[in-house]
Design brief:
The protein is built from 7 helices and 4 strands; from the N terminus they run βααβαββαααα. The chain is α/β, with parallel strands linked by helices. It has a 4-stranded mixed β-sheet, with helices on both faces. α4 packs across α5 and α5 packs across α6. It is globular. It starts with 8 loop residues before the first strand and ends with a helix.
């Protein structure tokens, strides 16, 4: 999962296909990722892998020592220049959450992309006393998205 640094990249693992189906197109998600690059990421590119639960479980175990699939993982580059870092999203978790909260999988993946990019630019909802939640709510409203991850956690 790596970008050449020149532009934002979305990679679609074949395991994501059953969850994505025809509900959302890769082109729609790439367009939103480019919008995030321009509006939220300060024009710094990032790479996002959209995969299935098995891959997110593997990454979560490898990098966080957690033995379960999660919806989104962020890997900041740690650099002040060049690509921001990488994000991994589970299409399976996105589909389940979309169904649970009554919106489309496309909207759920957009919510997860936004959440991941906010982590890449330096927000951390576990330590920032609500700063990420405020930023996420502001951007969610600007992009006309349903409740964000941090907003749902507060309900």
């Amino acid at each position: 999962m790596s970008s050449d640094g020149s532009s934002t990249t979305l990679l679609f693992d074949p395991a994501s296909k059953p969850a994505l189906g025809r509900r959302v197109t890769q082109a729609e998600l790439r367009e939103f990722a480019l919008l995030l690059t321009t509006k939220v990421a300060g024009k710094r590119p990032f790479t996002c892998l959209i995969a299935g639960d098995a891959e997110l479980r593997r990454l979560n175990k490898q990098f966080r020592k957690k033995k379960y699939a999660t919806d989104v993982l962020s890997f900041p580059s740690g650099s002040d220049t060049g690509p921001l870092g990488e994000i991994a999203i589970s299409a399976d978790r996105a589909l389940a959450q979309a169904q649970e909260f009554g919106h489309s999988i496309g909207d759920e993946i957009r919510i997860l992309l936004l959440h991941g990019v906010l982590h890449l630019v330096g927000f951390d909802h576990e330590t920032d006393k609500g700063d990420m939640a405020k930023a996420e709510a502001r951007w969610r409203r600007a992009f006309k998205l349903p409740l964000s991850l941090t907003e749902r956690a507060a309900v």
